[in-house]
Amino acid sequence: MLPIIFHPGHERHDPKLYFKAGTFQTHPEMPARAEAIVAELKAQGGVITAPADFGPGPRADIHSAEYLDFLSTVHGRWKTTCRDGDEVFPNIHPGRHMATRPENLIGQIGYHTTDLSTPIGPTSWEAACDSANTALHATKLVLDGARSAYALCRPPGHHAYVDMAGGFCFLNNIAIAAQYAVRQGKRPAILDVDVHAGNGTQGIFYHRSDVLTVSLHCDPTDFYPFFAGHGHERGAADGVGCHLNLPLARNTGDNSYLSSLDTALNRISAWSPDILLVALGLDGYEKDPLQGISLTTPGFNRIARAIGNLELPTVLIQEGGYNVPDLGKNVFSFLEGFETAHA
Fold first, then answer.
1. For residue range 231-243, what is the model confidence (pLDDT) as tens digits?
2. Model pTM?
3. Of 70, 144, 263, 323, which has the highest C-beta tally within 10 A?
4. Cα separations (Å) of 335 from 269, 274, 318, 322?
5. Contact (CB, 8 A) for 318 and 153
6. What is the 3 state secondary structure string of the chain?
7. CB 307 within 8 A of CB 214
8. Is a pLDDT exceeding 80 seen at residue 343?
């Protein structure tokens, strides 16, 4: 089995609630997700390695200094001002015509978050750093000569922007990994197969021509993140043509998904990257509680085989997937299919 990188410190981020459809609900991005994946991969003979600490540099290469300071200090500031509750939630966000970063704590919380789905707990920052290091370690293995590696990242990252958390994400793990590859003189492509558009990743690289982003996802016309991931978004300035969104209808199944994946893989091949980073979301599963598209466990195997057939050095970076009982088998199905094609 390919190298598996995982940090047990992920459990330090343990969100309790998020806001959806008018009510606070139990948060689906729970520590049990990662534990289910680890249990299945160990049962299948996988060997788990903890990541090295790459320090603050790679994080600062993607995220703004004020945002990183916010993430690392906000919970302590929240508690010292005697706010109720142990999780930091916003209660106001800037509208499209309000752009000033406020000095006030409540204002900063809204300024640096996109929604009510990403509460910040007492050690969420540490877990987010561990998750970014996990992606970096797997990427370094591939840059150093491994054909592929799997980064079991938690919390996930692809909805995080340069200076905003959202969609369960704080640090954009795959963007940090891609930039690390750029610093090593590489030409990375990012393929996002999560059920949600990789809006943060796209936003980070939207004006750049040195990283290709391709995302297949449930049509954001009627699905999170709503405001990004549409087909007309192709990049701006130097990045025009370096971003491809392939929105899919709700309940899209394996065969239709694979047809759109062909389009994605053809674009990646034409761009001629020398490393591929895959945002591996399993929340397109037919039984996932977020209910977008309808992929099967064997379907994940077929999708992975198609990606593996590109024969590119590849880093698989974990994103979503919230059906905990089936998550481990879905990840293993994907990894098995990928390795069969990529051997």
1. 999 999 999 999 9
2. 0.98
3. 70
4. 21, 21, 11, 18
5. yes
6. CCCEEECHHHHHCCCCEEEECCEEEECCCCHHHHHHHHHHHHHCCCCEECCCCCCCHHHHCCCCHHHHHHHHHHHHHHHHCCCCCCCECCCCCCCCCCCCCCCCHHHHHHHCECCCCCCECCCHHHHHHHHHHHHHHHHHHHHCCCCEEEEECCCCCCCCCCCCEECCECCCHHHHHHHHHHHCCCCEEEEECCCCCCHHHHHHHCCCCCCEEEEEEECHHHCCCCCCCCCCCCCCHHHCCCEEEEEECCCCCHHHHHHHHHHHHHHHHHHCCCEEEEEECCCCECCCCCCCCCECHHHHHHHHHHHHCCCCCEEEEECCCCCHHHHHHHHHHHHHHHHHHHC
7. no
8. no
Q: CA-CA distances (angstroms) from residue 42 to 5, 47, 49, 315?
A: 12, 7, 12, 19
- Sort residue 321 into left (φ over 0), alpha (ψ -120 to 50) or beta: left
- The closest of 141, 234, 136 to 179, measured between CA atoms, is 136
Residues in contact with 309: Cβ distance below 8 Å, sequence separation at least 6, in sequence order: 265, 341, 342
Dist CA 142 CA 315 (whole Å): 7
Find the range with the poorest average confidence among 73-82, 106-115, 139-148, 241-250: 73-82
- The residues facing 4 across adjacent strands are 48, 150
> Which position has the token pair 């993140």?
225
- List the one residue out of 57, 28, 27 whose CA is nearest residue 323: 28
Residue with tokens 């980064």: 151
